[in-house]
Amino acid sequence: xxxxxxxxxxxxxxxxxxxxxxxxxxxxxxxxxxxxxxxxxxxxxxxxxxxxxxxxxxxxxxxxxxxxxxxxxxxxxxxxxxxxxxxxxxxxxxxxxxxxxxxxxxxxxxxxxxxxxxxxxxxxxxxxxxxxxxxxxxxxxxxxxxxxxxxxxxxxxxxxxxxxxxxxxxxxxxxxxxxxxxxxxxxxxxxxxxxxxxxxxxxxxxxxxxxxxxxxxxxxxxxxxxxxxxxxxxxxxxxxxxxxxxxxxxxxxxxxxxxxxxxxxxxxxxxxxxxxxxxxxxxxxxxxxxxxxxxxx
Length: 297
Prior knowledge:
By secondary structure, the protein is of the alpha/beta class. Helix content is 24%, strand content 28%. The strands form five sheets. Strands 1, 2, 3, 4, 5, 6 and 19 form a seven-stranded mixed β-sheet that branches. The longest helix is centred in the last third of the chain and has 17 residues, at 277-293.
């Protein structure tokens, strides 16, 4: 029996494994290799790894874990989970049955792309979600923002730290007169109509096509599509979730433990509000430490 099985081997999962391996706990990491940020060419704001391809950071982390004899990395999917604290069972897609005293769920989320031609193809280059991740590289250029709800007004305020040239796309949302007046006061033009196409040009630029016939060129388009967990294991376990403006997240306490004793969660699966390599790594490390401490006698 393992001490901990970690389901999801991106940055949160590997950070948890590192802490547990250094504590000489027996750990198995199950990973499909489908990292959420695999579409990004560079990872920014990661101390010591700024501007490095995320695939390189991930590969280097996996190589470093190889020096810990109690960590196993399996390239497989977890199909089902059952059991309770001190005796969890995980069935993999390869038919292998594994057991552990604790579980860490770090299988992340999937961005749900709208059915708009060119949108998915531009994701990670011309269409991006995070100003902290990529804003510096496109500062002072013409930004576009796809309105996704009331929370988008905070993005408008935030973006002014990087650019004064911002166009907001209503994308079919009903924008109140108060918000329209606020956008006008901030010199952020609002373009009505629904987006029906995104034509990428250059390394970041895009032309946004609207159902009104209008086409607007921007240097970068920020968008926040809804997300969904990349697996449904939490549903089968009956774990508590919380609703967020962009999707559901697993509910955890200050020790990263979910509503079921012995199961911890980290990364975008439990923190959709500020997704980044840095926050995922921090949460994963905490989940690993608290899982270890929960097994002390």
